Amino acid sequence: MQSGTFHTTYASDVSLRPYWPQRIRIVIVLALALIFPWFADRYWLNLANTIAIAAIGAIGLNILVGYTGQISIGHGGFLAVGAYTAGMMAVHLGAPMWITIPVASLFTAAVGAFFGLPSLRLKGLYLAIATLASQEIIIWVLTHGKLLGIGESLSLPRASNNLFGLPLDRLGNNDFAFYWVCLVALILTVIFVSNLFRTRAGRAFVAIRDQDIAAQVIGVDLFRYKLLAFATSSFFAGLAGALTAHYRGIISWERFTIDTSILFLAMIIIGGLGSVSGSIYGAAFMTLLPAFLSNLARALSDVVPNINSYLPYMQQGAFGLAIILFLIFEPEGIVKMWRNIKDYFRLWPFSY
Amino acid sequence: MDRIIQLALSGIANGAIFALVALGFVLIYKSSDVINFAQGELLLIGAYLTYAMVEQFGLWWPAGVVVAVALAAVVGVLIEQLVLRPLIGEPAISVIMVTIGLSSLLRAIVGAIWGVTPRPAPQFLPTDTVTILGANVGVDRIWAFGLAIALFALLTLFFRFSREGIAMRAVADDQQAALSMGISVKKVWAVAWAIAAITAAVGGILLMSIFGGVSGTIGRVGLLVFPVVILGGLDSIPGAIIGGLIIGLLQSFAGGLLPPEWGLGEVAPFIILLFILLVRPYGLFGQRIIERV
Description:
Keywords (chain A): Cell membrane, Membrane, Transmembrane, Transmembrane helix
Strand content of chain A: under 5%
Protein name (chain A): ABC transporter permease
Largest interface: A-B, 49 and 44 residues
Radius of gyration of chain B: 19 Å
Pfam family, one (chain A): BPD_transp_2
Membrane topology (chain A): Multi-pass membrane protein
Distance between the termini of chain B: 46 Å
Structural class of chain B: mainly alpha
Number of strands of chain B: 4
InterPro entries (chain A): ABC_transp_permease (IPR001851), LivM-like (IPR043428)
Helix content of chain B: over 70%
Strand order of the largest sheet of chain A: 1-4
Oligomer: heterodimer
Strand order of the largest sheet of chain B: 1-4
Helix content of chain A: over 70%
Shape of chain A: globular
Order of helices and strands of chain B: HHHHEEEHHHHEHHH
Radius of gyration of chain A: 21 Å
Order of helices and strands of chain A: HHHHHHEEEHHHHEHHHH
């Protein structure tokens, strides 16, 4: 375990994981991720897939909110755009998922850039309210989509779940097969986004977050980079939405209301704003919390007779309470708690 | 023509209720810069508390309403003390998220106590209709409009003449100056939340009476407060009133005159919202201090 920051070359200074304990940890996490599906049952595989998809969406939102500082309450709407684009391509064109998912992600990026236009004139609270409006407008388009030829809900043909001609059903059951799809998508997302913030565009995003006027003064084109941030963020929302569509097989607009937008905001707040790993922790926390509560309710159902009828309220209340408690006691999220734990052991037995 | 007058009158009545809810929202924003996403849940709490007082505890209805409104005010103050006080000085996203978390928590509590099935509301307002300019209008809507106006008048008097009201205006005007004049800003925030909870509770009770029942849909009105306050100006009380009436009329006409399968009544306020944000972000009456990028 390293006890401080010691770099002797520039290459090690700019590398993402400079220390061998960090590299070993990544190898262990990857190995666990590869072993996990062979031992887990469908319930746990389903949870893992949900977490992976949510993590992709949360990383996308974190690019916009955590790194670029533009508050968005419209992420659920962008997930819907991705899900419905993939769904309509699969239903009407019979396209397989390896075509629908990239196309849906790109299309969502374009829609996201369009709804990012108000960010050029608005910031902070006003932008948050503008994205709230775009959420409502997207859901309205979906629910009144007969005008545009969109149904309120779509069910995707099973045949569309194939990768380059290989039907996913051959790999095993739906949950097992999609575990690999989601895992690869998540790993690619993490690699892309971790490196994004070492590029020109990523640095520009962070500069806009920290001081937009100063960023403009040093030559960051606000118009271009804000739209780029909206587009990149929506790209991953579209990816998550398209994965959801193919994984669940049925999509309906109820999955993508403002509550979904709020759920994703809660994930990145609880996980940690401006942190890729934080987005994953937050997605895991927010997915496991309701699952834990329903298991708890099942375990207690003999002792407390009516507990199952209270379960939705327990989940909703726990969701709200988690947000409030995290904001009051640890505004920097799970990432900060994890760092505190590591610091404690790094310095142990001395406190400083 | 009758149809237009009818739509206009019902739009005005709804608009008066929106204005009431928006007023509480603006008060909180003016005094403490907090965007309150839990405004809809304050409506819900007011409505359900009244339902509980009148139907479940069997109080005479004016007494029940008074008790419910008082309890709602207590809830407002508690929220301010327990949840928002620790977040002073945190960035905007934290404050937004904490009110969002609060709305989720409050909805869960209301749901756990009263369930999701709509309950028949106690009828306070007369339900017959009268004919105005050839259009049939429910008397309950006229009552709702009248009560909302009366509450506005009361609040105007409060801000003009009472000690607390003047202190609130001072804090809204300049927090530093108010502090140095010996005004307790914390007390002002508590009063702002209490008034916001009261106006929301009254709005919730009026909606309950108009809908003839109490259910979670009352909380939906909380989202409509955003078009209202952005149209009127986020920090303007007259703006909240005018904005409420305009959005009420707009919703009524968009839902009633355009083909119903478009369902534009729901979304029209939000389209207007985006448009106003792009063209005139400070709204009709707001202060033009909004930071531009």
